[in-house]
Design a protein that fits this description.
Elements (H helix, E strand, L loop, with lengths): L7 H32 L1 E7 L4 E4 L2 H6 L10 H5 L7 H6 L11 E9 L5 E12 L5 E10 L1 H19 L4 E5 L3 E5 L1 H7 L3 H4 L4 H4 L8 H11 L1 E9 L5 E13 L2 E10 L1 H19 L3 E5 L5 E4 L1 H7 L3 H4 L9 H16 L4 E9 L5 E12 L5 E10 L1 H38 L3 H24 L5 E2 H9 L10 E4 L3 E3 L1 H20 L9 E11 L3 E11 L12 H9 L4 E6 L4 E9 L3 E2 L12
Parallel strand pairs: 17-19
Antiparallel strand pairs: 1-2, 1-5, 3-4, 4-5, 6-7, 6-10, 8-9, 9-10, 11-12, 11-15, 13-14, 14-15, 16-18, 18-23, 19-20, 20-22, 21-22
Length: 602
């Protein structure tokens, strides 16, 4: 330029331009520095020709290193790289590494001055000359350690969820299932492809304790819900789960994370336990369980009734409290056998009640086994056999009594036969008398049999036998007296007496007249030392006037022979025949009727 053209104005103008450019450059530099600081980034520029690398102040802010600490070369930067990641940095020097647009993005670890490594994202671009050779490489490095940590955590969580045996899935209220892990596949039988997009409660035919709309309202407010839910698997199995629903927000939408724990076996076991408890509660047998050492753990109501101990009194006590001194060795033996896995019994024995009395029981003892076959407890069942033992004793007694009665019956038949032969003159009379007397004997036997041979009630015996001769009780027959149970050995003789007296009354006495009647009465006088005295009276009224009766007939002989020690009087008054019998018997029992206590009104 011609110096003549350089004027002061031009110089001033150039100065102003230079200052403006410098100011603009400073502004750009300041803005870049602020942006770099705000982004927490490290900017670098690698001059390939000089092999020098310029680094911004981000080197210190991000990695703690001062500029002079790290050589401004590729080797200096490579020294900070994690050994595993250095190969990536070396690849940057290879021209074939860069894509067609010369932009690159890499993730690797760089050592912090504090001795630990940070994950960084290195993104930049290469610049080439006309021949295509790389001249410069410029980029930005940012710390992505936090993001990598979150990503690793999410990855681990995803892996754990996928590997979990528990069914875990995520669903959208409207869009259906969006995640479905292996545990869900195993439990429900639906593959991931079959489950995705399906509405979960429709797919699994959920029976929920609350309605779906109410559940969503609950999740929108308190964000979580826990409870028991019933599902149905693909093969139709009913599955019970303990479910936890957690609401999570993603991209402005609410998703539900559902984690389920299979409790089907537990519910089945609870149902079985409840059924067994109901059976035990309803059982008439005493049922209880004990530890392997013999300490009572369970005690049903029948055990309370049988032994007198309440459940609270029995539980925790040793079963030896039921054995008494005699049964301790027996208990030790069956406990030992049950612990070895053996079922013992049933066997008959005696056990001790709370009140100190013994009760006859049939005992069965069995081991309670865990699924692996080990014995974990002992169960005991006891059936009260007191009534059975009493019945067996009564049967033996009745068998002996029957043999005795048969012998007595034959003796009575022989007496009837001989007496009837003596007092009859022709076969027809013999047949009538003998038949009537056999009938009275049979009637007495029927009443005794109905009462298990424990005796016969005097009034019932009289009514039964006299009903053959007198139809209307109250008009022609009046019976009065307390209810008296005659011992078995006196029932048959009294039956024959009634037959004989009625037969004579029909032939000669009150029953031979149309208006005649019989009054039958008795009373009992008790004396502790002398026994009970029965005063029996047969009185006839309205019959023909009879002045004599063959006192040596069968009736007299039967009374005198069958009722040993009886005082018998036979006489006539103005109204008719009277027969009185006075008999002292220690076994004579008056029947006392027990009044039942009135039941309380509900």
């Amino acid at each position: 330029m011609n110096d003549s053209l350089i004027t002061p104005d031009l110089i001033e103008s150039e100065k102003r331009s230079r200052l403006a450019a410098e100011a603009a450059l400073r502004l750009v530099s300041e803005r870049l520095e602020k942006a770099e600081e705000a982004a927490g980034a490290l900017i670098y520029d690698w001059d390939i020709a000089t092999k020098k690398i310029w680094r911004s102040a981000g080197l210190t802010r991000m990695l703690g290193w001062q500029t002079d600490d790290i050589a401004p070369t590729a080797e200096g930067w490579a020294a900070l790289q994690h050994p595993i990641d250095r190969a990536n940095l070396k690849g940057l020097q290879d021209a074939d590494f860069f894509p067609a647009n010369d932009n690159y993005v890499m993730e690797y670890r760089v050592k912090h001055r504090g001795g630990y490594y940070l994950w960084v994202l290195d993104s930049g671009r290469v610049f080439r000359d006309k021949s295509g050779a790389v001249l410069r490489q410029t980029g930005v490095i940012i710390d992505i350690s936090a993001r990598k940590k979150v990503a690793e955590t999410l990855s681990r969580q995803t892996d754990l969820i996928e590997l979990s045996f528990e069914p875990i899935f995520v669903w959208h209220p409207d869009k259906g299932i969006v995640e479905w892990n292996r545990g869900a596949e195993e439990l429900y039988g639906f593959t991931r492809a079959e489950a995705l997009g399906q509405i979960s409660h429709k797919l699994l035919r959920t029976i929920h304790p609350i309605e779906p709309a109410d559940l969503m309202q609950l999740l929108n407010t308190v964000r979580s819900w826990t409870g028991e839910v019933q599902h149905r698997a693909k093969d139709g199995r009913i599955v019970f789960v303990e479910s936890r629903h957690q609401a999570i927000e993603t991209d402005g939408e609410i998703l539900i994370l559902e984690t389920n724990h299979d409790i089907t076996e537990r519910k089945r076991a609870e149902a079985d336990t409840a059924r067994m408890a109901a059976v035990a509660a309803a059982s008439h047998d005493a049922l209880f369980g004990s530890t392997l050492e013999g300490y009572i753990e369970a005690w049903n109501p029948a055990a309370e009734r049988l032994f007198g101990y309440t459940a609270s009194e029995a539980i925790g006590q040793h079963i030896s409290m039921l054995a008494g001194p005699v049964g301790l060795q027996e208990q030790r033996q069956f406990l030992s056998r049950a612990r070895a896995g053996e079922t013992v019994g049933p066997f008959n024995t005696q056990r001790l009640r709370k009140d100190g009395s013994f009760v006859d029981v049939s005992v069965a003892v069995g081991p309670v086994k865990a699924p692996n076959g080990s014995v974990i407890a002992i169960s005991v069942a006891m059936h009260n056999i007191t009534e059975r033992k009493e019945w067996e004793a009564r049967q033996r007694l009745m068998t002996r009594e029957l043999a005795h009665r048969v012998k007595n019956s034959f003796a009575i038949l022989q007496a009837i036969l001989r007496s009837t032969l003596k007092t009859t003159s022709n076969p027809q009379d013999f047949a009538a008398k003998f038949s009537g007397r056999l009938h009275s004997l049979a009637a007495a036997q029927d009443i005794l049999t109905a009462n298990d041979w424990r005796g016969a009630e005097l009034g019932a015996l009289a009514r039964h036998l006299l009903s053959l001769y007198i139809v209307d009780e109250g008009e022609r027959l009046v019976i009065s007296g307390p209810e008296i149970n005659l011992p078995a050995e006196y029932a048959a003789p009294f039956g024959l007496i009634f037959n004989e007296l009625a037969t004579n009354a029909l032939k000669y006495g009150a029953l031979s007249a149309p208006n005649g009647k019989i009054e039958l009465s008795w009373r009992v006088e008790s004396n502790v030392n002398a026994g009970s005295k029965l005063n029996f009276t047969w009185r006839e009224k309205g019959g023909p006037k009879v002045t004599s009766l063959d006192i040596r007939g069968f009736g007299s002989a039967l009374i005198e022979r069958s009722l040993a020690g009886a005082k018998v009087e036979r006489l006539f008054d103005a109204e008719g025949f009277i027969c009185t019998i006075e008999l002292t018997l220690k076994l004579l029992r008056r029947i006392r009727r027990r009044r039942r206590a009135a039941k309380p009104q509900n």
